[in-house]
Amino acid sequence: MDEIFKALRDPTRRKILQLLRDGSLTAGEIADEFDISKPSISHHLDLLKRADLITVVREGQFLRHHLNTTVVEDLLRWVIDLNSPDHEK
Fold first, then answer.
1. H or E stretch including 57?
2. Distances (CA, A) of 54 to 42, 47, 81, 82
3. What's the pLDDT at 87?
4. What CATH number is associated with residue 59?
5. 88 lies in a domain?
6. Residue 59 lies in a domain
7. How many domains does the chain have?
8. Is 89 among the domain residues?
9. Cα–Cα distances in Å, from 10 out to 77, 80, 84?
10. How far, in Å, CA of 22 to CA of 38, rounded?
11. CB distance 38 to 45 below 8 Å
């Protein structure tokens, strides 16, 4: 869970996740949305992948990045559970 929160702490990584809501993208397509270097985007993608917030699938010569909705759903359940009256049980 710590890796997830570390990944979500950065606004660039949060924006990448928002971009991936609409479908998979290559690193180049993601980089086109930012005014930072491609190596910086690669670093952000690596942190998101290590946190299991995204998955990467090879399609021909391209690597497509996908939002891992399973981890996002688990995180949301955890946050909702924190607010639940019986979370102490």
1. strand 54-59
2. 13, 9, 23, 24
3. 54
4. 1.10.10.10
5. no
6. yes
7. 1
8. no
9. 21, 22, 27
10. 21
11. no
